[in-house]
Structure formats: C-alpha cells, structure tokens
Amino acid sequence: MRRDLEREREFKRREAAENEEALRRGERELLEKNRRLADEKWRAEKEAEEQARERSRREQEKKKAAEEKRRAEREAEERARERSRREHEKKMAAEEARTREVERQSKAEYERQLQERLDQDMQIMIQKSLDEAARKKKEEEEEMQRALRESARLEHMERKYQEDAIRSTRTDVPIRTAAPPSPPATPPMKSMPPPPPPPPPAPAPVPKPAVAKPAPRPPPAPKPATVSRETNYALPPVGEQKIGRFKLGGRSVPIHESQDIPDTPTTSGIPMSPSSPAPFARLGGAIAPSDMPIMRELKGQVPPVVPAAMDSKAGLRKTGGPRKVPPPVPERMGVDPKLAALLAKQRAWEPEDDDEMGAKTVTPPESPSGIQARRLSPVEFDIKRKSGWKKEEE
C-alpha cells in the first residue's frame, strides 16, 4: 500500500516535472518566437526606413538636378538677354551717332545755303539801292531840266504878252514889266512901237538817259531735305518734349516731329468783325453849345433825347428776334389797389429840402461837391477836353 502511494507520488512528481519542463519549453519557444517576430518586424521597419530614406534621397537628387537645370537655363537666358541688350544699345548708339552726324551735316549745309542766300540778298539790295539812287538822281536832273525849260517858256510867254500889250496900248504911261532892267526907254511913239527884243534861244533838249533795269532776282534756294528719324514707340519718352495744340480730353499732348510745322500761321486773337462800335474820337477845335447837351434832369421831367452822334449803341446791330407787333395785352376787369398806390406814389412829385440834400445828395440836379451845375462855353469845354476832366479845387 505504502509502495503504491510512493509510486503514485513518484508518478505525480514526474508528471509535474514533465509538465513544468513542457511549460518551460513552451515559454522558451514562445519567447523565441516573439523574439524572432520582433527581429523580423525590426528588420522590416529598418528596410522600410532605408527604402524611404533612399526614395527621399533620390527625390532630393532629382529636385537638386531640376534646380540646377533651371538655374543653368536662367543663367543662359540672362546671358542671352544681356547680350541682346548690349547689341541693341550698341546698335542704338551707332544709329544715334549716325543721326547726329546727318543732322550736323544737314545743319551745316542749311547754314551755308542760308549764308549764301543772305549774301545774295545783300548784294541784290545793294545793287537795287545803287540803281534806285542813280534813277532818283537822273529823275532829279530831268526834273531840273524840265523846270528850266518851263521857266524859260513862261518867261518867253510873259515877255511876248508884255510886248503885245505895249503894241496894243496907245497911252503914254509906261508899263512896268518883270523883265530884266534895261536902259531908260523913250516914250513910245504913237506912230510905230519899238521892235520887240529877240526871244532867248531855247535850251537844247537833254536826251533821256536809259534807266538800267535791275538784274532779275534769282529763284529761291531749295530747302534742305529733312532726314526723317525712325521713332521707336516701344521705348518710354525721353528728352525734351514739345507740347502742341492737340488735346487728349482736357490735357495737352506732345506733338510728333512730323506735326511740328513752323510755317503754319497762327490764329490771330483779334476777331474778324468788331463786337462793339468803335470809341468816339473828336478832333481839336471849338464845339458848338448845341453839340454837347447838358445831361441834367429834374425829378418828374422827361429825360432829354440823346443825339445819334453821342449814342454809344447807335451802331450796334439789332438782336435777332420776332419783328412782328406783339399781341395786345387783354385789359383787366379790376384794378389792383396795391399796384395803383405804388404807381401813384412813383408819379407823385415831392419837393426836396435843400438843407438836408445840400451836402449828401448825388442826384443829377446837383454835383457831389454841392456846386450848381452850369453850361460850359465852347472855349471852356475845349480846354477841359484837352487838359482832362478833373474836379476843380476850391
């Protein structure tokens, strides 16, 4: 019995040891399996990280290569643009130098032609002045010869007239003549008058000198051909700009060289027809009292009629409008009392106090200085008009 119990105990102990050993072996296998799985997972993660790092490195290299390529292209484009700009500047500088040279040559040629034209005009003017002086001198000589001939003819006619008068008279009174003095003559005989003196010989006619005609004026020199410069509208406006007569909206705009025409006449500021009559102008001399009416009127009197010569609106043209007679205004049935009272007050004449209005009034009957107005005489009016219309000091 005891032996069976011991066997059973030994069996249970062995079984427990085997179970414990199997448990330990299972734990070791589980640990080994977990370690193997962890190692595989770590290796997989490491490989994934390596792949991601490799992929990122390749992408960075691609980006860097693309950036390098773009930088190289940009640098090449900048170099090409700089080269094109230098070529354009060189071309523009050469064109500007060529234009300046052409302008200088054109200006020099124009100045030379202008100087030649001025010299020719000066020579022509000098020649014309000399010809005019010679012509005037010849005309004066001809006029003098003509005057001498005319005086000789008149003297001969007067002497002939006096001789005829002496022949025709039968009186003993000697006739005084304007002839040169002669020895005292005896009283004329009634039978036969003395013979007339022989007429003076007429001067020989002076041949008319031929007037030298001035040389024909040479034709005007042709204007120098202007060199048209090509305008690059792509560039901004540089240099001095000339503002012309054209407007863009309300602002003046610069004009192109082709629009700058110096020979174009400018419009005159004086209108073609006067908008008002010309001011009156009176010559010196005495003026009749009736020509200068006294513009004095009393309250309640009819104003004087201004003559047409003193009316400043007499020469104005009448404004355009209907020339027909306006239709008659229909009469009102009743009378407005306020209007009637106002009209009656305006028509009424009230005497004014001289004491109150003597130093303050500026009405037409009295002057501002308090002196009674009087009519000026023609001499006083003429003196006032010449010296100026100033107030006389007391």
TrEMBL record:
Comp. bias regions, Pro residues: 180-208
Region (Disordered): 1-116, 130-285, 311-335, 348-394
Polar residues bias locations: 264-275
Domain of life: Eukaryota
Composition-biased stretches (Basic and acidic residues): 130-170, 381-394
Name under which the protein is recorded: WH2 domain-containing protein
Provenance organism: Alternaria tenuissima
